[in-house]
Amino acid sequence: MTSNSSSYTTTNPTESGEPDCSVKGRMEHVEKILDQYERGLGLPTLSGTDDKNEFAKLLGLSRSELKAMGVEERGEAAYLLRQAAFNLQRSTNRESARQKWADQNVRRVITPLLPNCFGYSPEERRKSAVAQDDAAQKFEKIYEYSTLRLERITFLSNKVSEMAREMGELAKSKRGGFE
User: What is each CA distance from 173 to 91, 161, 165, 179, in whole angstroms?
Assistant: First the structure.
């Protein structure tokens, strides 16, 4: 049985207009602040569907399709790949921020519970404390989800940047008549 001994609520507030203090509401609030920060830096919102479709096409190019591309097409493809790498890196950064935020909140919620938790390792004591609090469990789920997503996308932006660099080099070689 879990209790909600922390100051975090695990349900949505009523329609009274008060701020949403639920775990999900707090996460959405933090993400909104980070979005505002990115816009303040002059960064556009993440690419739309058209860019995603173009990116998918570029990833699926066959050798013959690549050879048939002109210099300008390769230059455009390199630009689109760099743009995709940028967006992947932004997504990586967002997941990393979400992961850190969730972990900090788990720690904040379980700290008062730890003296009453027993286990051989700090990890066992942490799991025991998380099991005692609804909000900690929700933060832990967010942490685990973000960790998995982060593992999937961590190196993608570097790989796509490498593809963009190669595409740029191919465009230069074709322009110089080396192909």
Answer: 32, 18, 12, 6
Rounded to whole angstroms, the Cα distance separating 27 from 11 reads 13
Quick: pLDDT tens for 81-128.
Answer: 998 888 889 889 989 999 999 999 999 999 999 998 888 898 999 999
Q: How many CB atoms lie within 10 A of CB 174?
A: 18
Cβ atoms 90, 46 nearer than 8 A: yes
* Burial of 72: CB neighbours in 10 Å, binned 0-12, 13-18, 19+: exposed
- Using pLDDT thresholds of 50, 70 and 90, give the confidence band for residue 141: very high
129 closest CA partner among 141, 142, 118, 145: 118
Q: How far is it, in rounded angstroms, from Cα 172 to Cα 65?
A: 17
Task: Enter the DSSP assignment of 5.
Answer: -
